[in-house]
Amino acid sequence: MKVHVDHDVCDLHGQCVFTAPEIFRFDDRGELEHLDEVGADLASAAKRAAGVCPTGAIEVAE
Amino acid sequence: MSGLSSVVVVGASVAGLRAAETLRDEGFDGALTLIGAEEHRPYDRPPLSKDLLIGISEPADVALRVRGDLDAEWILGDAAARLDLRRRVVVTESGREAAFDGVVLATGSAPRRLPALDVEREGVVELRTLEDALALRECLRERPRVVLVGSGFIGVEVASSARTLGADVDVVSLDPPLIVAGTLFSDVCRGMLVDHGVRLHLGRSVAEVVGGEHVEAVALDDGTRLPADLILVAVGARPVTGWLDGSGLRLEDGVVCDASLAAVGAEGVVVAGDIARWPNPLFGGLSMRVEHWTNAAEQGAAAARTLVHGASPETAFASVPSFWSDHFGGRLQSVGLPGLADRVEVVGGAVEERRFVAAAYKGEQLVGATTYGMVRALMPYRAALARREPAMTEA
Known about the structure:
The structure holds 2 protein chains of 2 kinds.
Chain A: E1 2-5, H1 15-19, E2 24-26, E3 32-34, H2 40-52, E4 58-61
Chain B: E1 6-10, H1 14-25, E2 31-36, H2 51-54, E3 72-76, E4 80-84, E5 89-92, E6 97-99, E7 102-105, E8 109-111, E9 124-125, H3 130-140, E10 145-149, H4 153-164, E11 168-173, H5 183-195, E12 199-202, E13 206-211, E14 215-220, E15 225-227, E16 230-233, E17 237-239, E18 255-256, E19 269-271, E20 276-280, E21 286-288, H6 293-309, E22 322-327, E23 330-336, E24 343-350, E25 355-362, E26 365-372, H7 379-387
Parallel strand pairs in B: 1-2, 1-7, 2-3, 7-19, 9-16, 10-11, 10-16, 11-12, 18-20
Antiparallel strand pairs in B: 4-5, 5-6, 8-17, 13-14, 14-15, 20-21, 22-23, 23-26, 24-25, 25-26
Helix pairs in contact in B: 1-6
């Protein structure tokens, strides 16, 4: 599953990092980093993270 | 799989939408109906007191994006009026009936009202819907004298937006601002309000609205008279469960659910968002009801999984609640239940710079963490709360 974050929309709330730290994290400068592609084991976590993003910045697609 | 052939989702805001998306994700391929009291497809409420009010965003910008193809029937502008569990139908106010095998209840909250403040009167308003926000925005263009009653999230955020637009703002509130975040953060928030020219009347309530056809002033319980063109009542919310009276469901400040968000005493009924009262396994099964946005989003998805797969330890909703509030250029964020704390410890940043993190403990047990402006520093606390670690002392 592909994970895409629209950085123009992302407002660094960090809800995705709360929800799916296996996929999303803040780097040392406070910018959001994430895996671009996840396996079936993390697909559910990716969808949950997309669902709790306050700005709807995360897109997941098969 | 559960063999469900029809599901009705009652409530078309974020909890209902996430429930509908998740039902499809989890393989439900039967008939899906969403019922919404408002005429709109799901939209996002947090911007209503902020970007939409200031005019940075427009109604089209606050529509919630729908993930995937829901293949759903929408009944909008027609609130649910009754749940008939014997016939297994939801009856709407216009008399339409939607039949179901499984139902998701997600009707959210409505603003609390006060006897002294009649919101039917011109010049006395509340903020819940897109229409409320657009009407308020129109009023704020005139730079009115605004009296905000209440200093929770909406009161503080509207104070910030109204000052940005150049309106004159008084806040009347029994409680200190954002007291939900605890006294330390409340004090900082109070400093922000004062620095931005908001006049605070704390520990006070409204005795009377003064004026004829137009509102002229607000009289407080101590006799103070505040000139006003516009009064916003923002004194919290109440769960919308009146339509469930007589349904047989247990209603105790919300719909009583099990740990998996299945309504107690009914088959095929799950609950999500502001109206769900459930025992949170992460807090020792403490019965709670949470009105925050992220809770609604998470519970919508969780309730849908329970409906499809049945209640089990795997579908238990073990949640670290969280909220945020943007105001006066700062962002307050919180995880856990800092309201349970008997001790708060600043663990990073500087309070006087209004950029700091504090951990909240009950005894030795970490119960929450809150920050102005340092979200990264919340992460280890969020993780510890999710693992139910007893205590941490450093970020």
